[in-house]
Design a protein that fits this description.
CATH superfamily: RRM (RNA recognition motif) domain
Distance between the termini: 41 Å
Mean pLDDT: 90
Order of helices and strands: EHEHEEEE
Low-confidence stretches: none
Number of strands: 6
Number of helices: 2
Shape: globular
Amino acid sequence: MKIKPVFTEKSLGEAKKGRYTFFVPFNLTKESIKKIINSLFSVHVKKVSTVNYRGGVARNFRGEVKRILARKKAIVTLAEKEKIDLFEEEKGKTK
């Protein structure tokens, strides 16, 4: 299964609260997403929310047609005091 983590400012902020965001294939259900995350990262998933993004066509400023792919996003809430190290931010080095 191809599960890609989402690294945006909002998702990293939510990760500090215990909610982790992933892009997942359309055919996965909430229960199957829960099992996959449990097995991959050895954590206990309490809740899974999903959002489907519709694809389409858009034009850029030059008038070129750009295809936007449809995708599904899963937001996973973990049990208390558990975290996924993949989302941990590194401390910035001071110069």
